[in-house]
Amino acid sequence: MRILYLTGASAHRADVQPDHPVHALARMAQREGHQVEIVSASSDGFPGALPGGDTTHQEYRQLVKGVPVVRLAASDAQVAADRFGKWFGKQRFDAVHGVFAHPADWPFPLDAEALAPLVVTLSALPAATAADASTVTQSWMRRADVCVVPSPLAASRWREVWPESAFHVMPHGVDLLALIQARGVQMHGITPRSPLTLLCVGTFDPPSGVVELMRAFTTTVQAELRLRMVGRVDETSAYGQEIVGMAQSDPRIHLTSVQPPSGLAGLSDSFDAVWLPGLAPTDFSAIAQECAALGIACFATHPGASPLAEVSQDYVQRLASDDVSAIATAINQWTRAFRRSRQPTMDAAIPLRIEEEAFLYEGLYRRMAFERSRRTSTRA
Amino acid sequence: MNPARGGGDAPSTSGKHEDLETLRRQVLKQTTEIAALQLRQRDLEQRAADLQSDLLTMRQSSSWRLTAPLRALALGTRWVLSGRPRHILLACCGLLLREWRHRGALAMLKRMPHYVRRAGSVVASVDQSAGAALDQPGESGVAPRVHPDLIEGINDAPHIEATVSVVIPTLNAGPEFEYLLRKLRTQLGVRRIEIVVVDSGSTDATVSMAHAAGAVVVEIPPEEFSHSGARNLGADTATGDHLLFMVQDAYPLGDHWIYGLLDYLRDHASEGLVALSCAEYCRDDSDMMYECNIATYYRFLGCKDVDRIASFKGADHESLRTMGQLSDVSCLIPRDRFLQYRYRGSFAEDMDLGVRLIRDGHRIAMLASVKVIHSHNRTSFYYLRRSFVDISFLVGVFPDFTRPRHASSTGIVTGAVHVANQLSRWVPTLLANGAGGSVHTAVSEWLQALRDTPVDGAKLDTTLHLGDVRTEAFLREQEAARATLAVDGAQASLASAQAFLDDFVARFEFFNRYAGEVYPGEDQYLLDAWGSVAGKIFAASLGSLFADLHLGHGEQPASEPERQWLNRVAAQLTAGV
């Protein structure tokens, strides 16, 4: 099979790297012997090139761990769209798969009437943007053979706006092998650690409840407890300055101000539970999925946690972001429970792995190819 | 006392009455729904019977018979227009051209009977190649079977009323075992799943983890382990009406994996299907050699992209191996059926079971619509041992599985030394300087140059780069042993050395063609992968040709020291297998 993956700039990462969901799908398809190509719409003005196109830009088609990736510049939309259209018109793909937070992430209209089945994965809860009626969104939603969303909640939201589109629910897969390796998972349960470390990872902006978490943490008197904070802090804002000040005043808090990572694999194994500050409503979190796979406690705060907990109630504990006392209680309960038993629970469902996700998508491509050929033959 | 209800017996009794009444109402409602569904089922069955009857009448009509040639013509035309014949023709021409370049016209003429014998399976393999599989479902008019997880509403579908015992032999299963157990325990759609672990002396937490997962654990001493015996013991202990044999490093793909296997078995039971396995899906850490081998193997079996039901087609080794294949990685079979046959032997017990089943007129299946996650990243020394054992096994089991005779065992070593030197000089250069844009092209060019380089009979280089010190040590031992043996005639020695070179080049070319289609271009990942595969392919050639020597030496004159040497090699390569 020849499979083309299209992705926007904001699907978890701006760059297509090995931890990008599209890269995982593409490299797993390669392992099955399929030919793949990723085309990524970049928003940074990167002068991309398509294979066989302008030879002076060939260097922008690069391999990322064996997977061909082409970047297209959104800043020069018309030129890039023309080049993409010409190139796409000459190709024969057996399946085209777009992976976006939202169709508008792909800045070029899909003018060509592609023969290949088109699968669209919408990777986050659309919230207010589901009703977006831009030309791009309409062209995607009308042409897609099936739209895949990560939760039933997202499916219901999208169905309200696009009742004629087919939606299938499937979360993104976790890279279980990378997690096991990064975490150093052993057979005798979770390795005892002293001090226990709570990892807070995300974007530390006002509605997220980060300051409340830090206040709650400072009220806990446990000396053998640490708070590791990894995320972006706007130090020019009052909120950001408050976070930095609190981190400096409690030696148990360690703050690293960086772009938050999209997964746990890159954070080594130096944490025992994860705190997800909630900024915007979301029903999918790669980190929450990874926590579930590893059997690590995961807390999430409003407002972002609300739909997340609704679909992931098995492994996400939801808390109000402004209730310092409830947060402190949750931290204390967790530390007591963790010290009591570190054995993994055998009845906890494991989130989908990337291998499973890629295989299921392959099934969707085949099914859609069949449906399309049946429709074509019926019309003929 | 329940404080929420205000305390006291009377309110509590009243509350229970209310609960009971609610339950009664629910039961009544569900009974009504069941009755309605049964009615609907009967209606649908009646409609299906009517349609079947109509179809039969139509097929028996004279107009249907009269128009049969037209339908055949339409079918043929559609097949021709589908582009499939052109695809097959071009692919076959390509294969013939490669053979001609590789062997020359005279050798091709001599091999004509072989080509005729293999023509059917080659065409089938070509037909299954990329792209072709996509067209198949459309042509048959039947939607391709997909994994149950993709079926809308599968979570609301009724359970399959069956109990499945998953039998897993274990030995130090490692941390990933927890995930296999968790995945099995959370499988959906089957009434009951029992896990039976047969452990042969684990020193890690395998046994305690199995207990924690509620598995039935049978412990046996390591010296009592055999692949057949451990699985038979698990089957004897199991209580399910179906047995699902697995291995400790496999992982079910999807939440309805067992459901999918069982559903297929039940759907096709009326056609004589008694057992099935499913194809493997590579893990993210598999090596390219494994990917290529497994894809080639499934094409050989005819189940790369489609489910395949097989039955007995002939007693030749190719028919038996393609038709009679089951896999221990996942093998589902009704328990009573299994107990009639059981596993036997110490190697390839899964294929042996499949062959016995089809010989008795049963049918078995290999599924592509449902797969199991399983693959390896093996060392080159593993491939050396594995290819030695595989060849020895196949020759031992199938009388018509023939292998070439080599006139000179020292010549084989000479050929191996030559290739090892060339490989060890080329791989570091490739990794350091890059491939010039395409690893596939660079490898093609190097193989062409290697083919043209005469075997010089030089000694092994001081430094080797075969990717595994054990393979390198093995080769140095054989080089040292060669020095103690009588030297064969120059012509025989050269022919055997050339045979080694040809075997290596053919294997590497095959891999390079496969990988070149999937992995275009060049980056460090691909350079490392190709470089690693080169060492593994060398090891596989070495194992295969030593198996040939070992199997052949009893039938042709060989000196006593040579016999002793080859027996030592065989003992070394089969130890612990």
Q: What does this molecule look like?
A:
The complex is a heterodimer of chains A (380) and B (577). Chain A is of the alpha/beta class and 380 residues long. Chain A folds into two domains: 2-173 and 353-379, 3-Layer(aba) Sandwich (Rossmann fold); 176-337, 3-Layer(aba) Sandwich (Rossmann fold), CATH 3.40.50. Chain A has eleven helices and 14 strands. Chain A has helices spanning 21-31, 77-90, 135-143, 152-161, 176-183, 210-219, 238-249, 286-294, 305-311, 324-340, 354-379, and strands at 2-7, 35-42, 61-64, 67-73, 95-100, 118-122, 146-149, 167-169, 196-203, 225-232, 253-257, 273-276, 297-301, 317-319. In chain A, strands 3-4-2-1-5-6-7-8 form an eight-stranded mixed β-sheet. In chain A, strands 11-10-9-12-13-14 form a six-stranded parallel β-sheet, with helices on both faces. In chain A, β10 (225-232), α7 and β11 form a beta-alpha-beta unit. Residues 45-49 and 54-59 of chain A have low confidence and may be disordered. Chain B is α/β, with parallel strands linked by helices. Chain B contains 22 helices and nine strands. In chain B, strands 1, 2, 3, 4, 5, 6, 7, 8 and 9 form a nine-stranded mixed β-sheet that branches. The longest helix of chain B is centred in the N-terminal third of the chain and has 52 residues, at 9-60. The radius of gyration of chain B is 29 Å and the shape is globular. Residues 1-10 and 129-139 of chain B have low confidence and may be disordered. Classes of the chains: A alpha/beta (380), B alpha/beta (577).
